[in-house]
Task: inverse folding
């Protein structure tokens, strides 16, 4: 924090040198080299903004073409027939599937990630903490397609036992009803997504837990608190907003994940009440699996669904960043 | 009688009764044995269930034993500890399984022939073929993406740290953060929408553009962190000698932080090397060797894995190739990661004296 403010406030060379004999040419912005360099670096910054704007503009343009041709309702139609003339498609199923799979992933990943972050910062023997953090980083480095392959060929066969068990004891709820198909359903997808977003949530939470003022913890310990009580009273309240934003970053990942869902899920275009029965789809998965046989109209329709995904992830990530930014100011003021 | 003696014991020492140090291990071993017993008795064939039962028994057992001997507060503490350990083990299991399976099944067909030949006319269900075209495609696409993404990212970071003040810098910072979260498939769709407008067919460079978009925010973030670590005294010393600001940045700031910047760029390369979705939309895949990224469909390593999996209808030969390609990809990404971290440690900026 300190370093950054110092850095951005680095005094421009202009005012002071006028006192000395070296005043000649010391005004930064007027030298050609400086002007070129400033132009280049500012240009790159502007280029990033232009790219973001262009993404929004071009996706919206193609999406508007597609939606104007759509003879279903884009938001509520339970169908994706872009090859019909006129095409009929809607995103209801995709929105449902995307939300369900992400919610399952979050429900599994958030508690485990927080626990691992606590493990690294507070529980692990010091010799183990470093390697564990490294292993979590490795987990983040594995490409998503490899997770997809592993999920489809290793995780799916291992899920049948769990599915049978859930169906037998919890099937009456309807959510865990299983008709005995291959376990390529939203639950497996959710578990796989949970494994994939675990590193990012763990890493961000870990950073937040590290910043807990030592004094708070020591005060709690001095009052005779057990380690768990220290965590509940000093660490978790301090880290709550950080954990929330970490979870939202993970949610953003889960919403947009493509290949892992495309390999594991066996999609249908309807809504399943049960997490265990195959069916449904997500935005990203639908784009990846429908793309190769899509015509021009079909591609525009996929772009339209991609635009919805883009907007959703923008909102989720923007909210997460806003929380982090607020927390930074807060902790900076306290430091 | 027994409660009285317990109370006596507590009164006698300040610490109260506590479990011996080895007790978590004993409880863990005990619950594992019981879980295996239950699994065998009930005929549960899935090892996942055995593990889950063992984990639940471990947590319950810890609570029970600790609550009897040490009291409720200590018991809660022990349960929290054991839950944290269970969570850690739960996270390690998939990673170990993934690495193990990939290596075990990948080495079956991974040899020099596999690395130096392409699919060509080898049918998906037949053995043979290889990933040469995919490696060429991946290297060219990722290389071009790096050539575009890394300079833009580094320059943007320089702008934010060295020049950035005011509204433009704030906007760039915010949108870099937002851009980090763009799903890779959306970046692919963006380039696709441009290609639809100009009626272009898939080619390698289109994939590079999408990958570059995904790479830029990562490079900006890491470079920014590294530039902020450069001590301000170095800049001031250089400026005080009358060195222009741009030369200060080029000759003082960048060399000081070059290790960290390299690390960031390499981690970003590792990340985009595994991206499949944009490549699927824009590069399309090609069983034949295409050395020209500017014309015609190309192959790519992650895309190759996906196609071997999805287009083969369960042929074992294709799955073997998919695993071998996965092993190659993981090895590439991991080596990049390790080298990057090595450089970071070796050339860590000297912040204090």
Result:
């Amino acid at each position: 924090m300190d370093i950054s403010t110092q850095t951005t406030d680095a005094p421009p060379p202009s005012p002071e040198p006028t006192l000395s004999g070296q005043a000649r040419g010391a005004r930064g912005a007027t030298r050609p080299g400086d002007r070129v360099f400033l132009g280049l670096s500012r240009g790159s910054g502007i280029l990033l903004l232009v790219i973001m704007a262009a993404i929004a503009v071009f996706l919206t343009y193609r999406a508007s073409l597609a939606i104007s041709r759509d003879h279903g309702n884009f938001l509520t139609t339970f169908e994706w027939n872009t090859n019909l003339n006129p095409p009929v498609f809607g995103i209801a199923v995709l929105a449902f599937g995307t939300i369900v799979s992400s919610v399952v992933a979050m429900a599994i990943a958030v508690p485990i990630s927080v626990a691992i972050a606590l493990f690294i910062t507070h529980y692990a023997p010091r010799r183990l903490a470093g390697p564990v953090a490294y292993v979590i980083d490795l987990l983040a480095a594995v490409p998503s397609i490899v997770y997809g392959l592993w999920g489809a060929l290793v995780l799916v066969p291992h899920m049948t036992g769990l599915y049978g068990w859930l169906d037998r004891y919890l099937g009456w709820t309807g959510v865990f009803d299983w008709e005995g198909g291959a376990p390529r359903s939203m639950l497996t997808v959710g578990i796989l997504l949970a494994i994939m977003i675990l590193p990012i949530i763990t890493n961000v939470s870990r950073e937040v837990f590290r910043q807990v003022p030592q004094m708070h913890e020591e005060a709690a310990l001095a009052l005779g608190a057990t380690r768990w009580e220290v965590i509940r009273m000093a660490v978790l309240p301090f880290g709550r907003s950080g954990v929330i934003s970490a979870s939202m970053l993970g949610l953003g990942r889960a919403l947009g994940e493509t290949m892992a869902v495309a390999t594991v899920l066996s999609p249908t275009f309807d809504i399943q009440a049960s997490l265990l029965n195959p069916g449904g789809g997500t935005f990203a998965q639908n784009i990846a699996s429908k793309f190769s046989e899509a015509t021009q109209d079909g591609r525009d329709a996929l772009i339209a669904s991609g635009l919805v995904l883009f907007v959703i992830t923008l909102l989720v990530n923007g909210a997460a960043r806003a929380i982090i930014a607020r927390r930074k100011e807060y902790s900076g003021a306290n430091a | 009688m027994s409660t009285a003696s317990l109370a006596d014991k507590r009164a006698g020492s300040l610490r109260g009764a506590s479990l011996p140090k080895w007790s978590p291990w004993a409880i863990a071993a005990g619950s594992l044995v019981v879980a295996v017993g239950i699994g065998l008795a009930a005929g549960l064939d899935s090892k996942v269930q055995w593990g889950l039962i063992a984990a639940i028994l471990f947590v319950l057992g810890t609570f029970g034993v600790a609550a009897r001997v040490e009291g409720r507060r200590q018991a809660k503490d022990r349960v929290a500890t054991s839950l944290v350990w269970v969570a850690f083990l739960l996270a390690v299991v998939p990673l170990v399984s993934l690495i193990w399976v990939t290596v075990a099944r990948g080495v079956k067909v991974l040899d020099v022939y596999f690395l130096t030949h392409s699919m060509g006319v080898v049918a998906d269900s037949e053995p043979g073929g290889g990933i040469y075209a995919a490696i060429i495609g991946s290297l060219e696409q990722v290389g071009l993406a790096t050539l575009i993404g890394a300079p833009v990212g580094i320059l943007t970071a320089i702008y934010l740290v060295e020049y950035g003040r005011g509204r433009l810098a704030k906007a760039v910072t915010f949108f870099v953060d937002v851009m980090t979260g763009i799903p890779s498939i959306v970046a692919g769709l963006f380039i696709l929408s441009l290609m639809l407008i100009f009626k272009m067919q898939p080619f390698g460079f289109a994939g590079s553009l999408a990958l570059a978009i995904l790479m830029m925010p990562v490079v900006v973030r890491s470079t920014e962190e590294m530039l902020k670590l450069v001590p301000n005294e170095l800049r001031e010393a250089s400026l005080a000698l009358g060195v222009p600001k741009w030369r200060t940045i080029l000759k003082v700031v960048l060399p000081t932080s070059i290790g960290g910047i390299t690390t960031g760029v390499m981690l970003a390369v590792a990340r985009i090397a595994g991206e499949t979705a944009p490549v699927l939309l824009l590069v399309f895949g090609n069983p034949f060797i295409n050395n020209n990224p500017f014309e015609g469909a190309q192959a790519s390593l992650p895309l190759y894995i996906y196609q071997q999996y999805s287009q083969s209808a369960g042929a074992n030969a294709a799955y073997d190739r998919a695993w071998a390609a996965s092993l190659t990809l993981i090895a590439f990404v991991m080596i990049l990661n390790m080298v990057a971290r090595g450089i970071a440690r070796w050339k860590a900026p000297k912040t204090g004296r």
In short: Residues 1-28 of chain A have pLDDT under 50 and may be disordered. Residues 94-288 of chain A form a domain with the MetI-like fold fold (CATH 1.10.3720.10). Chain A touches chain B through 110 residues (CB under 8 Å).
